[in-house]
Structure formats: C-alpha cells, structure tokens
Amino acid sequence: MSANPAPSTPTTRFAPSPTGRLHVGNIRTALHNFLAARQAGGRFLLRIDDTDAERSREEYVEAIREDLAWLGMTPDGEERQSERLELYERAFERLVEDGRVYRAYETAQELELKRKILLGRGKPPIYDRAALALTDAERSEKEAQGIVPHWRFKLDHESPIIWDDAVRGPQKFDAAQMSDPVIRRADNSWLYMLPSAIDDIDMAITQVLRGEDHVSNTAVQIQMFEALGASPPAFAHTALLVGREGKLSKRLGSLGCDAFREQDYEPMAINALLARLGTSKPVEPIASMAELIETFDLSSFGRAPAKFDEAELARINAQIVHQLPFEAVSGFVPEGFTPEAWHAIRPNLEKKSEVVEWWQTVTGPITQPEFSAEDRSYLAEAASLLEWDENPWQKLTGALKDRTGRKGRALFLPLRQALTGRDHGPDMGELLLLIGEEEARARLEAASKA
Ligand code: GLU
C-alpha cells in the first residue's frame, strides 16, 4: 500500500471488476465509500477485482481511474487482486490446514441434479456436503479417475451469523441454511468471495458499503474473517437502484459514466443526485463535494429501492450549471467571451456546452424570422430610437412603448426575434449590452427590411 496508516484509520474501498465501464449503480457505491471515508477523515481505496483474467480488461481499469477522477473521487491508494495472488495462496493454505476449506468433486450437472431433487421435495437447495464425507480412499479414487477438485469453504453451523448493518439494522443468518460456497475452481482460479475477505483484512478496511445484493455474501464473509483470525469490518448494504419504471432496466444498467460525460453532465450533478437517492434527505443541487461529505449520513438511508430518473439528473444539472463560475467555461468558450456574457447566458443553460450556441446569438450570424409588415415598421422605429447608455434595453423599450402603445409580447417579442433570432433566451437587457450598439442597430434595420 502507498502508506502505512494506523490500524484504526477509517478505511473504505470501492472494488469494481474491470469488466465494463462504471455505471450509475457502481458510481453510487463508489460515492458512498468515498463520502464515508472523507467524512471520517480516513482513506478511500480503489481495489481492482481482476482475478477473472478472461473477463477483465486493462482498458476498463483505465476507464475506472479516469471516471473516478472526473467525478472528483480520486482514491488514496489502488490495489489489484491479480497482483496479490500469493497472499490468497498463503491464507488458503492456512484454511486448508485448519479444515475450513475442502475439496469437492461434483460436476456442474451433478450439482444441478441434487438441486432439482431437493427442490422437488420442497426443500431448500443447500449443498449436502457429500464431498466432506468422502474418505481418503474415495478421494484418491476420484483423483485417479482424473477428476480435479474445486474447493468449498466450510461454514460453521454452530453459531448464528449476526451483524448490525448501518442501513438494514440487526441482521441474523443461520449458516446451516446456506451452502458451503465454492471459493476456488478446479483450474485454481478464485471466485470473488475469499480474496475479497483476505484483502479487506490486509488493507485494514474498517467499513464495507455496498449494494444489498451482497447481503448473503456478507454472511459468508463474516465467517471467513473469523476463520482468518480477524474481526469483520462494519457493514452497510444499500437498497438497489432502479429505473423510473421500478425495475433495473437495461437502459439504467447501460447508463455508464462515459455516456454521462458525452452528454455533458456535470460530475457534481451526478454526485449530488446519487448521494441523496434512497435517503430521506432531499435531492439538492449541491455543487461542492465538501457539502456532500458533511451531510452524508447512513442513518438517512431507507430500505426501499432508490429510483434513478434521468430527468431528475437533467434538472439538478441545470441548477448546478446556473451556479458555475466563469472559470468553469472559460477553457472552451470562444474568444471574446466575458464574465458578463457568462452571467447573462448561464441562467438559460441546461448543459454547460450550450453556452457556445447562445454566444453565437451575441456574435452572430443569426437567422431572423419573417416579420409582418406591421412588425417591420415597428422594428424600423426601434432602429431609429436605439440609444446607448448603461441600460439601452430599458431606454429602447420605454421609448417604443410611449411611441407605439405596444406592450407585453407585442412590444418585446419582435425585438428579441430581430436581435437574437430566437423566441426565448437570456435577459435582453444583459444580452443587448453584449451585442453592442452597432450590431444591434444593424440587426434591427435588417429585420425591418426583410
Ligand atoms: N467486485 C465485487 C463487485 O463488484 C466487489 C463487491 C464488494 O464490494 O465486496 O460486486
């Protein structure tokens, strides 16, 4: 590890498998772990769960790092399971010696058959531990037949498994009602369960926050921690994320961080929404990570599925864009764009990148609509009345009102259309100052002649 923290340092980890991009579900888990660590003044680690060499891809490892950095959740350390196999081997050997793991020889078909028989009898399909009952001679015979064993972890049936879950409250599992989990395949490759527990011990993880799909894994892993001579970390299992329609849709599963970036969502909009979904706290356009850290509270999490709605993300995004300082856009806006322009245009944006098209309404060229003969003469009058001072818009509309008797929409809309080519948009008072006297007069004159 990058540093040697005191054993009591609050430490969380985000442990994705690099088999795809980050998506809303695991961004949310990463965020919970990040916020919990920062709030406690502790460490947030990234653990790449890449023991599955076939499905893990380097490009996804890089994408995960980039996405976390983009979201503002740069970890304090990174570990890769594929580089820690030696550690797993040693822990495994200890468990073999202690009789906590055992060889099993059933094929997938045999196991399936056992399952069906039990289910047919109305019984839960719990593995019968037949392999544990084999004698040495029977085992040798199997191996002489060329059957390579896989390995199971032997659950302790005597003591109930209990923990106080920070979201779900007190949890109790009966190990006798569970199958001894397969932890290692016949080809010696690892399944997720044991390496994760070994790592959580070795990395001194103090709190594991993850989705409720891991609740039964936690029951097993608690026994693994104990078998390895360690006390388990604290656990919190959050209710799953579902789409607006109430189930985890394909679309939600595929809503990756890359899609969010392409669609120009603000990272803080994603964070602000995901930090509050599924909690009793309101979703608010919180633009500062410090505020999310400060207000993170596991006791506010509910048991009902958290609903993700992209329309809500769009709304929060707009509200966050409306708070962004000029510096947030100064890097990509065209030359000449000023803080005053940002101030005028900002309230009109849903996405930051839209600033470019709005700036074009200032700099031109613009496309004006066709005006009626009446509006044309109105606009000719506007061109002749235009006078520049610190608020030319107020002056112009005041004068036009007096002269023509027009008011409301009839007074304002032709002017906005002639000056910007649009029916709606930023405050005309601010916009007119940006367009400038000469250009504004030219636009009004052009509209009056069209
Ligand atoms: N790699 C596992 C997953 O993505 C990690 C689960 C855990 O947090 O322990 O589901």
UniProtKB/TrEMBL annotation:
UniProt domain Glutamyl/glutaminyl-tRNA synthetase class Ib catalytic: residue ranges: 11-313
Stretches assigned to the Aminoacyl-tRNA synthetase class I anticodon-binding domain: 381-447
Region (Disordered): 1-20
Subunit structure comment from the entry: Monomer.
One BP annotation, GO: glutamyl-tRNA aminoacylation
GO MF annotations, alphabetized: ATP binding; glutamate-tRNA ligase activity; tRNA binding
Enzyme class: ligase
Gene Ontology CC entries for this record: cytoplasm
Designated gene of the protein: gltX
Protein name: Glutamate--tRNA ligase
EC nos: 6.1.1.17
Keywords assigned by UniProt, alphabetized: Aminoacyl-tRNA synthetase, ATP-binding, Cytoplasm, Ligase, Nucleotide-binding, Protein biosynthesis
Polar residues composition bias: residue spans: 1-14
Chain span(s) of sequence motif 'KMSKS' region: 247-251
Species of provenance: Parapontixanthobacter aurantiacus
UniProt key word NADP: no
Binding locations of ATP: 250
Motif ('HIGH' region): 16-26
InterPro entries: aa-tRNA-synth_I_cd-bd, aa-tRNA-synth_I_codon-bd_sub2, aa-tRNA-synth_I_CS, aa_tRNA-synth_I_cd-bd_sf, Glu-tRNA-ligase_bac/mito, Glu/Gln-tRNA-synth, Glu/Gln-tRNA-synth_Ib_cat-dom, GluQ/Sye
Subcellular location(s) per record: Cytoplasm
Catalysed reaction, written as an equation: tRNA(Glu) + L-glutamate + ATP = L-glutamyl-tRNA(Glu) + AMP + diphosphate
